[in-house]
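Researcher: We are triaging several targets before committing to wet-lab work. For this one, the compound of interest is adenosine-5'-diphosphate. I'm pasting the protein sequence and the ligand SMILES. What I need is the predicted three-dimensional arrangement of the protein with the ligand bound, expressed as structure tokens, so it can go straight into our comparison scripts without reformatting.
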Amino acid sequence: MKTHRLLAIVVKELRQLRRDRLTFAMIIGIPVMQLMLFGYAINLDVRGLDAAVLDQADTARSREVIDGLGASQVLDLRYHVTTPRAIDALLREGRISVAVVLPRDFETRLERGDRAALQLVVDGSDQVVQAAARQLARFPLPDTAGWTRRVAPIEVVNFYNPERRAPVNTVPGLIGVILTMTLVLFTAIALVRERENGNLEMLIATPVSPWELTLGKVLPFVAIGLVQVSVVLLLGKGLFAVPVRGSLGELYLAALVFILASLALGIFLSTLARSQFQAMQLAFFTFLPQIMLSGFMFPYAGMPRPAQWLAELLPLTHFLRLVRGIMLRDAGLADLWPSLAALGVFTGLMLGLTVSRLRKRLD
Amino acid sequence: MTSEPVIRTRGLSKRFGDTLAVDDLSLTVTRGEVYGFLGPNGSGKSTTLRMLCGLLTPSAGNITVLGCELPREAERLKRRLGYMTQSFSLYRDLTVLENLRFLAAIHDLPARGLGRRLHDLMSRYRLDALRDRLAGTLSGGQKQRLALAATVMHTPDLLLLDEPTSAVDPQSRRDFWEALFELADAGTTLLVSTHYMDEAERCTRLAILDQGRLAADDSPRALMDALPGRALRVETGRPRRAHQYLATHPGVIAVAQIGLGLRVLATDRVTPDELAAALTAAGLAARVSADHATLEDVFVAATRRSPPEPGPDPTPS
Ligand SMILES: Nc1ncnc2c1ncn2[C@@H]1O[C@H](COP(=O)(O)OP(=O)(O)O)[C@@H](O)[C@H]1O
Ligand SMILES: [Mg+2]
């Protein structure tokens, strides 16, 4: 492999990309659109959710908090119950979607600030309720100003659906989905387009090597993928206050490996397809299972075994673990290395397959 | 090196499913030749050229090009060979200069002297004024000049050109052939496929392909001299009727109307007087005289078919 040939192909790709206005617009347009769509669709401002209250503390302050919550109009406090069992029943029957629980030691917890003082039990199967609960979680509790807390004063507990599905949880996944959608598609048509336009016949009659061609087509999109990640992160922070709790450097490293995996998958598809149309169909064919099984749509833990095995083969599954871990749980790559390794193996496999299929022949 | 042929094939065949695209082809091309490949669409010209540059694997037979055994040594050959594809295969969304720079890098041209080389190529092929135009916006003739410049970028010893002038106006065709002879003078061996008779006539040697088989192979002059049969010119008041009559006359190989007259290719046994008598007997008064043999006659005699129609190639390329 010669670097100057590789460089020539990279430069050529970038030039072509710059002149392809539509594709160029899509690179930025798709992330923005998806983020708006998913972010705002979930972030509906809801009012009047049916709710129950279990006030085990029953102090002046606890009543004050409950009045405050009622006044916010997000909750309609219909039921005042005395046992946790009653809450279970109401939730199960679907009569309420939120329950406010103030434990017996509410006052002490409030003072110490080491455990959540108030619990919101929500019907996690409903995304609208999820979003509302997130708003409520920011509700100010009395006497908390100026305190350094390790724990948020209000804790949201998901009933039924242990995976929280607020934008905070969606945006990290969305990074993966957007990268998959755009990058696999772009590279899937990359080689096929050269073939359809006759460029490939000219190229393979030159000393260019399959590795140079493959890497030269893939590398420009690495930069594009990183730009997309940045767009989603910035918008996610600006519009939905999505935090990055872990290391930003590790997040980008994980994204980089996932980008390579997606590009490798795309370029491999490109060697299978005979036309750009076929390439697009193949890309969508790999896209659906990734969305459905990776844990983006449904929690991984809730899937049947065979579906989980299949999910392990998909790069998006591993990336979601990485990105959620880093962004939401402040996990480090030291904890998440199996996922990173899986992505690396996947990338190597796809690139190897591509180069072995990309013989410099027409037959 | 002078005695060693540049291209040598023996029993070369290529099968695509049920189609035998190239059938038992044995060719020898020597150094410095402008070797023509003449044949109608689908006669196997492109397939042969692709096998000669290692892009297709032969179904049978063997090939040696510039001392490289194909397909085994295809990669070594690619540094010394230039292949210009039938359809324009440079990047339409890159400019003339960008395309040339790209090809220069792909062919490992050293950065030192590159500016000089690009400048030379652009002025030789009159691309200076077009250097910043996107290749896709060039005219047919301009595209071919660019493609030729890109193909000779690395000064190959052998050039394979697949119908290089099929989408080009007559003036550009003449210019293009001047450029080809310039390359031949400089010592490059050229193999050019075409379906234009006038182009074929300019080649130093010619292979006529018909349905994948080699129908004739010699210099154009020798082919015309050795034409089996004779060319006749028929002048008559009713050319269409005479055409119909002659087409069924024994000994007539082919008839073509040219202006108001007819051009007939007949076997040696048919004399002009005999044919005039036969036409008169059929109620078609005519004057019949002998005519010069042309390459078209050679082609018709070799393939027993009408000459190829210039036009786009419908086969997959
Ligand atoms: N890739 C291919 N697959 C199947 N058939 C082919 C392929 N390439 C060429 N052919 C067939 O081989 C024959 C010769 O084609 P080709 O070499 O393109 O002829 P020419 O260049 O003289 O027009 C045609 O019948 C064509 O349909
Ligand atoms: Mg052809």
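Researcher: Any quick observations?
Model: The two ends of chain A are 24 Å apart (CA to CA).
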